[in-house]
Amino acid sequence: LLISSPGASGAEVSVFVTEGDSVTLHNDFETNPYWIRWDFHDIIIAQILRDRRYICIDDQCNGRFRDRLQLDHQTGSLTITNTRITDSGYYQLRTAGSRKGNSNRIFTVVVRGVGTDDVSVEEGDSVTLQTDVEMNKQDRIRWYFNETIITEITGDLSFICTDVQCNEGTERFRDRLKLDNQTGSLTIMNTRTTDSGLYDWLIKSNSRISARIFFVYVNGK
User: Fold this and answer.
1) Through-space distance between the first and last CA atoms of the chain, rounded to whole angstroms
2) DSSP 14-70
3) 171: which of 34, 74, 124, 130 lies 20 to 30 Å off by Cα?
4) Which of 23-27, 48-52, 104-108, 158-162 has the least mean pLDDT?
5) According to the 3-state scheme, what is the secondary structure of 70-93?
6) Model's pTM, two decimal places?
């Protein structure tokens, strides 16, 4: 069971889980608010109104999450059981009527498949992690390294090393990442042994949600 425990209101939280496991999206705003609602993209999947609890009130939700959602009546935390790759995406938590006022938060959930794409490269060489997709303007793509965001494409805009751990902290990938705006494929240049690890890829659009995981091993010289 994977449990996420986020910070401040409005913050976006990334959560990773292996396919088939359970994941809990934690509401830490305040217990027993007047109203709590969980959305998966544009689908309402769970709601608490006063003392009434509703799960999967939408036909689309029933088709996707049938019998796999658990809603904690006291805290409003949401658990997804027996996770599937298609559960990857954006979950929004909204609350109202508490002493702290209204709150909202976005959870980015990445469900990793049981299998991974293993990639090996010699230190100093470049390696490209291929997505095998053609992007549309509505697509949003993210790359994570060991669960830290390192690149993102939203529409026509691309961002590289947006996370402090990537740029200012360890400076791990500074000036060594190249992002293909057409496919979202990621190239790591002048590889180092410290680049070895898990790279998660997530793509979301109005019509599809996909996730993929690569394990990169950099052989030292």
Assistant:
1) 39
2) EEEEETTS-EEE---S-SS-SEEEEEETTEEEEEEETTEEEE--SHHHHHHHTT-EE
3) 130
4) 158-162
5) EECCCCCCEEECCCCHHHCEEEEE
6) 0.69
